[in-house]
């Protein structure tokens, strides 16, 4: 029966020598929130895995942990504004009136999540940020702009069109990503 652990020596070059680990990169790295930032790191490693992921950060800091909680916290606040509980002393008699009474706060916070995503992506490295392409920059800018307009207007037609556009856009992006995986 074969063991689950591979106890063989690591393979070296043709002469049978051990492979030495690569020397650390001598370039000074700008670190922000415990991760490499804007240092020109490669967007993909040798196994074609994305480098710009927070799970690849070897040393986590409290600031990085707190940074990762910002976007979910903002989405929670948006949900709390949209659907207040009975404990909030807010009695909703008309959901339409409640929505338009809070639309500035809702869409300001919702638009902020896209801006935070841009900053978060930039913190993962400039090369990773640039590797996402113009579709990413355009869609983030578009969402920030549309949320800003939604925060400033109370037009039911605009809000209805925005809701339909946002749903169709996300379904199209989900479909294109699923097709790419196949």
Topology:
Blueprint: E1 31-32, E2 35-36, H1 62-82, H2 95-123, H3 126-131, H4 133-152, H5 156-181
Antiparallel strand pairs: 1-2
Helix pairs in contact: 1-2, 2-4
Would you mind describing this structure in some detail?
The chain has 182 residues and is mainly α. The chain has a domain at 70-181. It has 5 helices and 2 strands; from the N terminus they run E-E-H-H-H-H-H. A two-stranded antiparallel sheet has the order 1-2. It is globular and about 50 Å long.
| Biggest sheet strand line-up | 1-2
What class do helices, strands and sheet pairing give?
A: mainly alpha
- Unreliable stretches (pLDDT < 50, length at least 5) are 1-10, 23-50
Query: Secondary-structure element sequence?
Result: EEHHHHH
**DSSP helical segment count:** 5
Features:
182 residues; mainly alpha; globular
Quick structural overview:
With 182 residues, the chain is mainly alpha-helical. 56% of the residues lie in helices and 2% in strands.
């Amino acid at each position: 029966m074969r063991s689950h652990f591979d106890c063989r020596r690591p393979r070296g070059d043709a002469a049978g020598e051990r492979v030495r680990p690569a020397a650390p990169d001598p370039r000074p790295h700008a670190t922000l929130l415990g991760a490499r930032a804007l240092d020109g790191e490669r967007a993909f490693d040798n196994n074609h895995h994305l480098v710009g992921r927070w799970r690849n950060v070897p040393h986590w800091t409290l600031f990085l942990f707190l940074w990762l909680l910002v976007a979910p916290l903002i989405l929670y606040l948006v949900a709390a504004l949209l659907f207040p509980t009975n404990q909030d002393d807010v009695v909703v008699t008309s959901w339409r009136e409640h929505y338009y009474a809070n639309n500035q706060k809702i869409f300001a916070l919702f638009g902020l999540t896209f801006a935070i995503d841009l900053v978060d992506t930039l913190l993962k490295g400039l090369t990773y940020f640039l590797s996402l392409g113009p579709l990413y920059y355009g869609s983030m800018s578009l969402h920030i702009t549309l949320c800003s307009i939604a925060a400033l207007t109370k037009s039911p037609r605009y809000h209805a069109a925005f809701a339909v556009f946002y749903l169709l856009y996300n379904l199209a992006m989900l479909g294109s990503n699923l097709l790419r995986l196949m």
